[in-house]
Amino acid sequence: MSSTATKSQANAELKTAPHSALRTPQSALAPRPHVDFASPATNTALLCAKGLEKSYRKAKLVVPVLKGVDFQIREGGFVAVVGQSGCGKSTLLHLLGTLDAPDAGEIHFSGRRIDNLAPRARDVLRNEQFGMIFQFYHLLPELSTLENVLAPIMIRFGVLSYWRHKTAHIERAKKLLDLVGLGHRLTHTPRELSGGEMQRAAIARALIAQPKLLLADEPTGNLDQKTGGEILALLKKLNRDQGLTIVMVTHDQAIARQADHTVRLVEGKVAPS
Amino acid sequence: MYKLLLSWRYLRTRYIALASIISVTLGVGTLIVVNSVMAGFTREMHVRLHGILSDVIIESHSMDGLVDPAWHMAEIRKVVGDDLVGTTAAVHVPAMLTMTVRGQVSTRQITLIGVDEATYADTSDFRNYLLHTENRKQLSFALRDEGYGDSEHELPPSGWKYRRMKVAYDREFEAQRKLLESEKPSPGSTSNSEPPIPPDPTGVPLDPTAAAPTEGTVFDPATEQFTGIVLGIAIGSVRQRNAEGKVIDYFLCRPGDDVQVTFASAGMKPTALSDQFTVVDFYESKMSEYDSGFAFVPLKRLQQMRGMIDPQTGVDAVTTIQLKLKPNADLNQVRDKLRAHFPIDQFPYRIQTWRDMQGPLLAAVQMETTLLNILLFLIIAVAGFGILATFFMIVVEKTRDIGILKALGAPSRGVMSIFLNYGFSLGLVGSGAGMIGGLIFVAYINDIPKLIEIVTGQEVFDPTVYYFQQIPTDVEPLAVAGVVCGAVLIAVLASVLPALRAARLHPVEALRYE
Asked: What is the ipTM of this complex?
């Protein structure tokens, strides 16, 4: 693999990277009207879900997936959700990430209820507060690595405001790609990247918007053990060095053990630990 | 921002969509070419149809005509007022024209028109179509010395010079014949042993009628002419190809030759009158209907011959009065005023504008243009369905990407506008290419038939069939803009449904899509 050298380099950088590496000058990310999710001092739980229920319809058959799940994560936490496939862990993550709405229950983020927000407000929330990474990376094949990383910023800003701070955005994306060890792959399309590289790019993309919360859906599920381990190490570093709150879904107990805390899902319910 | 970037990337990477837009390109190109040619054709036709007709024409139903045109003109001036530029009176009568070509008699059916030299040329474009440059300045029925034809029309030697030469030749021929007859007394042998005909110095037929003296007076064709007649070029010539395939006009007669014209007299019962006329010029209006059917003679002479002048009072009669109006006058309004002033139950006249007279033809061309436009736009609409299908395919193919965008916080409206932008830019590219192609085609339209001829060996644009030397075109910027906008609109409309589908995709299901 051509990137072995750069990976260790990236790790080294990660250790030495000043905390400000991820902080853009605030002027670059101009404030825009949105729901204020400033974390209240009174509540330590960044994300908190109560009694989540969700069922899917298959033809006339109603398949219950989540049957009253309670979940919470404090700011700066790293929680792994584990369970057999089909236990509803991905559904839980989608509900937490407002990609889907629960049939019953409530989700609070920074002390505000988010599961019943209007679609547009949920879009803004996902764009600005959440970062997501997936098992199959989900990069856009038409865009280069750099453009993929910039995608959330492009979504957030219109043409004019994007162009006004174009260089700042690009600088930031480059720094992030350096951070994940992909600084030499800016113009490559996802097709030309290896699995591990794609996941690194996806992590950079998830971080560009400076999210409070990173939702990871089986981030190592499609990678070999070594590469998966590297990705996991990267996530842990981000959690530790930058205080990034991470919810990770996995079916692998070994990987789940790397997290601070583990939640087991069995048949749509949280199993007592 | 991502909307523009993504639709731009899709545009550059999805060649299948570019293939679907080719039909739009072709449709737009064809529409532009067809519209330009039809517009050019219509313009050319208007000019030609209008050419020797004036703006408003008052025709008498009877061949005896309407009596006292001077009074009519005064009335018309009162009715029409300031819009009137000029009036002229004319006599139209069906006639038979006979000319002798190389000893053979050739007969044509024509409309003989008696025109007033002083005013006729001013009420229509007639003057501009004459072949002699002096006649274009001032119409005259006197034969000119020479100088007929121009770069477009190559005439063999014509005019007085030619006429004198021809008369000298004819006389020489006659003298030779008489000499031979006097040398050979035996009457039976003359027919068998005719002398060889001396080579024709002018390449022109022997014309016995030219030398025929008129009754009573001694007519010298070398110095005198009959009443002048101006023939349509297609009456006096035949257009065909020579051995090399070049299109040439073969002249049956030319200025300086004499022709026989037979027509009906006025009054009941009409009798056939016949007289000699000397061809003094040709005209070419490029309207075959006119060029092959109209011959012009002086009005006074025709009136005299047909008995249209009252011998007691001297009041004359004409069959038509033609009006020329100011360029932006409302022809229909003038026509209606005149119709009201000359009610049909009192005056047996037919009052028409030139458009009325050629109405069916103009309407046919207009209809053809409209139909072609509708058909071609249907083709673009069909192309629209092609875009629709292709776009649905692309949306399905891009389902996961749509899910990703939504997961990253792109609103449904944004996803929709990606595909609308995409459709818009495809339409723009397609119709832009079509427009450029169409305009280039129009610019080189006269070279393209030649190219096809070189490739296939088949002649496409045959100048013996059409009266145009070149295919006329007229690019109307508004029409071009309309076609392009229409095509872009169709492309956008076709992308609405797929875009809506993309916008409605549920992010979770889209992300799960394999």
From this structure: 0.82
